[in-house]
Amino acid sequence: MADYKLNTDLIAQLIVSLLPHKPVLNALGFLVSGCISLCMIVYKFHVILKIPSLSKIWMSIKGSFNMFACLLLPNLYSNFSVILLGISGGNVATGIYSSGHKFVSLCDGFTKVLSRTFFPFLARRIDKHQLYVKISGIISIVMSLGLFLCADLLVKIFYTPEFKDAALVIRIMSIAPFFLFLMNTYGTNYLVLQKKEAILRNIILCCSMGGFILAWITILNFSYIGVAITITSVWGVRGFLTYYYANK
């Protein structure tokens, strides 16, 4: 089933990446991949879908609160940073940042697909975690080097000359794939599997609060560069803290 999930997630990420300025088509990409996944689950694996009761939904949320917090808290600095940039810098600054961030987002999407693909395998064979570390680590380094070295070329190919400043955003955030590697490899695919979600939640909570404060300082002074610095810095601190506590 992991192979089907990988294929459909890649379809969605590819559509989103190739059509960055068409929100309807972006949504369509996720809708198509979701429908394909649902059909495979129902017809190929003969899974029967049922509507859960409210009590079961509440029990599920209560039992998974730490993971719920881990998914929700990053919005405190990521989405807020973009909103603050739009208010303080206007559409031009937001457009430049978004143009550069698209390529980092593509790498982020791929690392998440890789993480989700390995998760069920590692849940059964945590002794193979080092194999996943090596594979994910090599891919993240290649992506980081690719973003840094090809920033100007990517902007030249995909955007008009007005967006040339997006290359700087790409270079600042080029280290992000490595930080994402630390976050996914030692967070979701290690601490969670070791039943240490509370540690991961506390790391994300502290980093999110720090990112929220940092956003006010950097964005108001450095515009779209401030957003790139904020998000990259938070990911870096979060990645190394996750690595530290996973190996403690």
UniProtKB/TrEMBL annotation:
PROSITE patterns: PROKAR_LIPOPROTEIN. One of its GO terms (cellular component) is plasma membrane. Keywords: Cell membrane, Membrane, Transmembrane, Transmembrane helix. Its main location: membrane. It is found in: Cell membrane. The chain crosses the membrane at residues 24-43, 131-154, 166-186, 198-219, 225-246. It is a multi-pass membrane protein. This is O-antigen transporter. It comes from termite gut metagenome.
